Amino acid sequence: MAIEYQFYSAIKKYFPDIRFDLILYSTPPITFTKVVKNIKKRYQAQSYLLLKDIFPQNAVDIELLKKGGLLHRFFRRKERKLYEASDYIGCMSPANVEFVLKYNKSIPPSKVEVCPNSIKMKMNSTLSDEEKKTIKKGYNIPPEATLFIYGGNLGKPQGLDFLLRVLESNNGKTDRFFLIIGSGTEFTKIKNRFDAHRPSNALLLSELPKEEYDKVVQTGDVGLIFLDPRFTIPNYPSRLLSYLEHKMPVLMATDKNTDIGKIAERNGYGFWTENGNLDEFNTLVDKFCENKELIAKMGEKGYVFLKDNYTVEKSYQIIMNHFENR
Fold it and tell me: Considering the entire predicted model, what is its pTM?
């Protein structure tokens, strides 16, 4: 609640002689309206919102906020004002653009566009097969098993009860291994299940240093993405990018409203099923375990798609197209 005042105070204190031409900011938080308006007015600047999360609706979907309640109405007003103050709004995917325009009729369609999550590609960072074997050995991961990796936030938005069902239903199968890396509000719950059931083909690790995490991810065969099935907003998790960068196909279990699965299947780098459909999810797990060539083919397609669509250079050009001729 105090962040916009803190930002504006710091800008006045530390940048009194700096003129700003372009203001970039992301959600969350959505409480930047006053600081954006003040800087726009002071410097005649342009503003670009990178819409990374649609709050407060995401909190309503997973019952962290009550729909129509005092807090929901308060934050919804904040959200509308931020959209109004923004000259342009960059959304993560086409479904996000549609959602924003559908539920915010006052926004001109001309100022909303796709500006997806992006990544700065690493050069010459690929591990050798020998290095991958060494890393797997260090974590007691069977070298011949198909390695499914989930890396990132372990919180309520991910709908991880389904992940636990997946692990239980695959326990004891030697041709697959599940590696879960991350932290968040659900970590303790997941750890308790691991401690109680001690799955033979799964490992849970708390958050790793970035360099170590990147190395471990490179040993994986398939990346996993989970989202709570109750979401009505089309989330687009950024962990997808690290999977694609390391040429891993993606297996997703999400809500019906996000288009992350549709885009992956359309472009040949992933499979999707609704979060909760255990039989279909396990059928897709089996498909990967039975076909190493499929993994390599889909991984390569994902890497090409990443280079063509999800690099920082692409995001930069999308944003600067609006300002280069000013």
Answer: 0.88
